[in-house]
Fold this sequence. Notes:
CATH architecture of the domain at 3-250: 3-Layer(aba) Sandwich
CATH topology of the domain at 3-250: Rossmann fold
Strand order of the largest sheet: 6-7-8-3-9-10
Radius of gyration: 24 Å
Helix content: 25-40%
Shape: globular
Oligomer: single chain
Distance between the termini: 44 Å
Number of helices: 21
CATH superfamily of the domain at 3-250: P-loop containing nucleotide triphosphate hydrolases
Structural class: alpha/beta
CATH class of the domain at 3-250: Alpha Beta
Amino acid sequence: MPDLLRLEEFSVAFDGVTVVDRLSLSVGRGETLALVGESGSGKSVSALGAMNLLPGNASVSGGRTLVDTDLARLRHRDWQGLRGGRVGFVFQEPMTSLNPLHTVGKQIGETLRLHRGLSGRAARARVIELLTQVKLPRAEELVDAWPHQLSGGQRQRVMIAMAIANDPELLIADEPTTALDVTVQQEILALLAELRDRHGMGMLFITHDLNLVRRHADRVCVLFQGREQETGPVERVFASPQSAYTRTLLAAEPEGRPVPSVAGQSLLRADGLGVRFQRPKKLFMPRPPAFEAVRPLSLTLGRGETLGIVGESGSGKTTLAMALLRLVESHGEIHLDDTRLDTLSGGALRRMRQRVQIVFQDPYGSLSPRLPVAEIVSEGLRFHHPELAESEVRRRVADTLREVGLPADCADRYPHEFSGGQRQRIAVARAIILEPALLVLDEPTSALDRTVQKQLVSLLRDLQARRGMSYLFISHDLAVVRAMAHRIMVLKEGELIEEGECLAVLANPRSDYTRALVKAAGLAPGMR
């Protein structure tokens, strides 16, 4: 198989500090090479360095070629033609990669205009075709949508559509399925495999999900602290790993069972809760009917209990959580203990938020880049408890950072100085410093590699055991849900499909939809 991309003795350093050390790899036409390793191992830096996308304080050495093109010798204007044309990119965090000031159609259309000269109706038709290829529903509507109007999974699929728009020779996919549920993961990777085979495209697939590597990659390269540990066919590496680090990765599946809850004590209850979004009215056209994002449903959550919310991207999981938190308009009753949340407003609603906190899916996007960690964690505490002395605030911040496993010296540092797993711990610290009764966790592990996921799951269980918090746990990763949740609710297109005790539902799902989720997750049928 002829090499498409080749790196030889490739190294990257920032301000003289080596972060990738003499890496050698190749990607052939029609081949998928998976690059795996923990956060900070140099996976993304290697890909960005090969494509000349690192900041000015980075130095790159070693050989790098694309077919017969010496990438080290390219001029600036040559790179502009290569990136987005011969090489497509799917980045890890779509919300930071998409321009919030432009519609989806305009952003995908831009790459078609630059590399193919398409504009107007031809470009719009091609954009709709691409959105349909990546399995986005209502492509004719979403072409005019803004990034903030899409779910995390939908934004990731927009990025994939943009990457494949010009039929690239090489696709660099940096965690392309991070924000996607398990069924859509399989659809997207099957689509990428189909495009790879049809066009002879090579794929550099960067991921922390070893289950996806096992199913969709031909070869795998394992990195640890910037150094190659081993490279070989997926079957051989997974069956007989030569490196101790590879064996650690393969053993890092979330495990254990949820902590015991307080039987019979209800904390949260919702009755007939639903969410509708009014569609925009076009000029001289009748107003379209409202979009029912969450159809009326009821739920209960006990003290110290974890309720898992699962379903495909766009199924209404996050919208349901936002409704419970009174962050989107909804109808129906919401009770927290003896308080009707749906009737609160103004100061009463603000005071209630101390008891209900949230950890968002993207910690980089939810943490202010302008504030040090100490200010981020203490912001809510200062608002709800203005009577506290500064020394007491600092003490509580230090205690909370220590409780989530962060060193004390991190208080004066900024979010960009931390790994993804550390940023998520900062987000957890910001939430629990207020000692909430309910913590909403919206895909808290989706952007983390398996070893860090396992650590975060263990941390969350320990916090729940010590503090008695209740969790509303939203995730597309059923292995993590199995390790965290007492009960589970399955949503599809805003409708409750089935619910029940977590292990029972995953072992013997009643609906075809839940069976498809379990199968796509690779969980063994009938497990307990």
